[in-house]
Amino acid sequence: MASRQELAERIFFELADMPPGAWPRELDRRCNGDAALKEEIRDLLDCHARAEGFLDNAELLAQSLGLGTIRPADEHELAPGTRVGEYTVQGVLGRGGMGTVYIAQQERPRRTVAVKIIRRSVSSQSLVRRFEHEADVLGRLHHPGIAQIYEAGAAVVEPGQPAQPYIAMELVNGPALNVYADEKDLDSRAKLELLAKVCDAVHHAHQRGVIHRDLKPGNILVDEVGQPKVLDFGVARAADADLRVTTLQTSVGQLIGTLPYMSPEQVLADPTEVDTRSDVYALGVVLYQLLTGRLPLDLKSRSIPEAARLIRDESPARLSSVNKVFRGDIETIVSKAMEKNKSRRYQSAADLAEDLRLHLSGRAINAKHDSAFYVLRKQLKRYRGFVAAAVVGLLSLTGFAIYAALQATRYESLAIKERLAREDAVVSQSKAETNRDLAKASAAEAAAKAKALDEQLFNSTIERARLEGLAGNLPRAEDLLWRSLLTNPKAQRARWALWELYSRDPVRWTVPGPNVHNECGDISEDGRLAVVGAEAGSIGIYNAATGAEVVSFKSHQYHVRRVSFVDRDRALITVASDGESARWDLSTKPPTEVWRLPCPDGKASYQAGDILRDGSRLWLITEAHKLWDIDGRSGAVRGSHVLAEGARYAGMASSQEAGLFALGDDQAGVS
Fold first, then answer.
1. Tell me: the pLDDT tens digits for 250-298?
2. Measured CA distances, 658 to 219, 654, 655 (Å)
3. What is the pLDDT of residues 582-632, one digit of tens each?
4. What is the average per-residue pLDDT within 13-18?
5. In 10 A of CB 663, how many CB atoms?
6. What percent of the chain is modeled with pLDDT above 90?
7. H or E stretch covering 281
8. First and final CA of the chain: distance in angstroms?
9. CA atoms within a 13 Å half-sphere pointing along the CA-CB vector of 541
């Protein structure tokens, strides 16, 4: 008997693949009144939802790679009783890529609805356009098989905050299509009737110029009366020209949809090839899964390119090979709906529904079995290289046989030798084939071992990164985990390890800095400001709490190599790579120059230096092997000291109280 922990994990993994809106109902059904088990699984699902959103956020990924900034999260769920227009929030139904869906009560007419509200933090115009697109798409569709939109608008949901867009739509109380079929223990006939209704709804959308592009059981719910409802038109694409490019997700080159249900033309990520027949293919996959309980192609543990190749080139197992009861019309219908070539597919969802109902009524269906010639032609096209080689080999063998026959009539002895040679060639070929089979077996074994070693190395890297994070070495842990995730984006271990790292040690903020290459920096004594020196003399001062830029200015012609707050953060002293130094008054914006001192050695460049916090002293080491003592308040040179030649000084530290300073060279020496 499974332990309580194993039971919780099994239920969690089953629910994680379902839409979030189905979680509350499935929790009640599967936990059988066990409140503690239900609470434990709910916590796992909440963590799963937050972790998925965290790692799939494009802005966060860009920040982790140094390509942009992260906006701090400012969202929270609306409390029950909150008013959104004429709707009163009752609870959370689910969370999506653009916002949160709530169960709400409408006053007039009085009914329970689903209200989808876009998040305030979604500042991207493309995502707002996608939300508006979904409202527009749903507004076109009026069919009992499609979740009906009631209203789309904007309302102030929190005092002092701007209005947020929302959509009020029909609330569908029911499980996903496949879950419903399992719960009701539907036979094949009932399943076919159910899918025919789905085809009717999809055809209605197609007639109004809308291609869903993400049809799957999780987006088809069945209500209390057995009516299937198609949901989630968030990635739908309008077929008419005015909505050709509506959102970032539907633009050229984007892979949209759920991979196992995508058609061959859809995985090419070319929107010009996607049309209503792509939805017909997805309906064929849904029907295959509904009848057999499994997907046509096993894409688990496959990379996206490999999965796309399988969808384009590999034929799924025929229905009759799974269950002989499906041999005949049902197998023909499913095969035609899932044709690789869309011109040979059902040309509309209505055609698919018609054949389903013809079969259910005992009449002849319109679809026909593929002819033997067509199957042969497909196989020859698929294996054209092997066929060409076989033809060439056959022609060569024929020519050789003719030559041998002609020679046999003239030289009997030569014919005997040639025959013996041919026999030797056969033996050699047999040995070569045996060796080739052995080589293939060895290669397969080596590949399996290499894959196992790769997995061990990958898991070892994850564990090493977790230990680095626990030891406080956050940069190293972060580097290892992000490299692992980018190498294998589907790796759940890397995702959870990153979530664990950032949950324990969150990054407060990140900014790109004043220029491409940042050279040095400092924090003010009171901890409120941070300064960064960069190439081409750029200086940037930032609010240490928020990362907001306070001021930026150009201090020198060359790269800034040393910068420090001085005189109780009222001034700034900078040193450039050419040895030039300067002091800046921070009481003005932009800061004003107090003094500027060119390199005391003329054209010699900067090696190392240090600045006292009170701003009274500045020391410089130049390429001329001299240590210069400079007054930090006036910029006057106080004196210099000649250093030993042959060493390149890479660092300096000083102490005002002790009157000492230390020099570090590139050979790890300290003076």
1. 433 445 568 889 999 988 877 788 899 999 999 999 999 999 999 999 8
2. 73, 9, 5
3. 999 999 989 999 999 999 888 778 888 889 999 999 999 888 888 999 999
4. 71
5. 21
6. 32
7. helix 276-292
8. 71
9. 23
Distance in angstroms (rounded) separating the CA atoms of residues 395 and 332 = 39
What are the C-alpha distances in Å from 177 to residues 90, 203, 226?
26, 18, 10
Strands 210-211 and 237-238: antiparallel
Assess whether pLDDT exceeds 60 at residue 246.
no
Distance of CA 241 to the CA centre of its chain: 29
Distance CA 399, CA 384 (A): 22
d(CA 557, CA 300): 57
In angstroms, rounded to a whole number, what is the distance separating the alpha carbons of residues 542 and 3?
A: 54
Residue 330, CB half-sphere, CA atoms under 13 Å: how many?
24
Residues 193 and 239: beta-carbon distance below 8 Å: no
The average pLDDT across 3-11 equals 76
Residue 462, classified by CB atoms within 10 Å of its CB into exposed (0-12), middle (13-18) or buried (19+), is buried
User: Strands across the sheet with 571-576, in order?
Assistant: 560-566, 571-576, 581-585, 592-597
Alpha helical stretches, state H, 361-473: 372-382, 384-410, 412-470
Give the gyration radius of the chain's Cα atoms: 35
Q: Is the pTM above the cut of 0.90?
A: no
**DSSP annotation of 659:** T
Pairing of strands 649-655, 660-665: antiparallel
Q: What's the token pair of residue 421?
A: 């040679």
Tokens of 15: 């629910």
In the structure encoding, which two tokens stand for residue 291, read together? Answer: 């009848």
Q: Which of 287, 290, 279 is nearest to 257 (CA)?
A: 279
- Dihedrals phi, psi of 410, to nearest 5 degrees: -100, -40
Determine the Cα–Cα distance for residues 270 and 308; give it in Å rounded to an integer.
13
Identify residue 95 by its one-letter amino acid code.
R
| CA–CA gap between residue 473 and residue 476 (Å, rounded) | 6
Write out the H or E segment, with its range, that includes residue 26: helix 23-31
| Neighbour tally for 597: CB within 10 Å | 20
Q: What are the Cα distances from residue 649, in Å, to 14, 599, 666?
A: 62, 17, 6
Q: Is 555 exposed, middle or buried (0-12, 13-18, 19+ CB in 10 A)?
A: buried
